[in-house]
Amino acid sequence: MKNHFIYLGLSLLFFSCQVANKTQDLNKKTILHFAVNDDQITDAWKKVLKNRMNSGKLDSLSMVVKPVTREEIAWKNLIASKIQKWNLFRDSLSIPFENISLNDSITILLGYNGRDDAFSYKDKTVCFDVTALYNSYGSADKEVNSNRIDRIFSHEFTHLLSKKWAQKSKLKLQSFKDSVLWECAYEGIGMYRSLSSKWLPVGDSLSATSKRTFNDLYPKFTDNIIRIHSEKDLTTREKKNVHQNLSRGSMKKKWGALPVAVWLASEAKGNDKNLVKWVNKGPSAIVELAEKYLTEENKKAFDAFLMSHKN
Q1: Does the pLDDT value for residue 25 go beyond 70?
Q2: 192 and 134 fall within a common domain
Q3: Is the pLDDT reported for residue 21 higher than 70?
Q4: The predicted structure's pLDDT at residue 218
Q5: Residues 239-293: pLDDT tens digits?
Q6: 189 and 297, same domain (yes or no)
Q7: Of 79, 110, 132, 285, which cross-links 117 as Cys (Cβ 3.0–4.6 Å)?
């Protein structure tokens, strides 16, 4: 009889866990919303742009009346066709973020007439601009764009996970140095998800594309990271120069995000569980990764900086 009750208790516990897991899965929805109505952006799109452009530009954009083009509709339809697939991505994208998950619904918000192809908003929204997507990548019907939009979604969803990690870890950015290192980490793990094959390591070596690009980026990375550690009173203009192209602009100019993304790909070696330790280091991961992966004169300069900094 005692064994019977133990078995019954275990069965009820298993059933309760199953119900809880199913309820949690049901809550993990990905919802599409098109923030254009009567040929104008809606309040929902204005809201997500509020912190991305000044009020004058936003007011001007709000006044624009323009029919959605056939090309923009094609991008909208491509994204709509991906929603169920993207919902299935969520667990695998969470692997580097130990004990972090987004169990609620997230919104895919589409707008138009902007310049940024995609960005995240707060902690539950991924935004796409169908005008910017067409201007940047051409027709949505191109075969390459089906995989590209998957990678862009993965990039932006990873930003949501990074925000959740920062919140749970009680991350505090107390200086300009901290904010730059965090941007390298935040944008680096995001870009890791959107790298095309030409950037990915080949075995233990950089790809030819990465190697060529890093000839230009490594000196910038080295100079900027040393500078933010060594100079405590940077002017506004100097801070702007450091931030320039850290994670925005042309892919080949992103001195902070791109090297970190490729270094993380080297660390992962096809298994994202290998990235847990790097994600958990937060901003401090950047100096450790740089120490490991910088080469030649940049490595010498960085090692000399580390040695003097320790002393």
Answers
A1: no
A2: no
A3: no
A4: 98
A5: 999 999 999 888 999 999 999 999 999 999 999 999 999 999 999 999 999 999 9
A6: yes
A7: 132
Q: Are residues 185 and 217 in the same domain?
A: yes
Say how many domains are in the chain.
2
- Return d(Cα 144, Cα 204) in angstroms, integer: 27
Query: In which residue are the tokens 């919303």 written?
Result: 33
Concatenating the DSSP letter of every residue in the chain gives -HHHHHHHHHHHHHHHHHHHHHHHHHH--EEEEE-EETTEE-HHHHHHHTTTS-HHHHHHHHH---PPPHHHHHHHHHHHHHHHHHHHHHHHHTTTSTT----S-EEEEEE-S-S-SEEEETTTEEEEEHHHHHHHH--TTSHHHHHHHHHHHHHHHHHHHHHHHHHHTT----SHHHHHHHHHHHHHHHHHHH--GGGS-BTTB--HHHHHHHHHHHHHHHHHHHHHHH-S---HHHHHHHHTTSSSS-GGG-TTHHHHHHHHHHHHTT-GGGGHHHHHHGGGHHHHHHHHH--HHHHHHHHHHHHHHH-
**Boundary-marking domain end, from 112, 141, 168:** 168
Which residues span the domain enclosing 154? 28-168
Domain boundary among 168, 199, 216: 168
The token duo for 28 is 């993990």
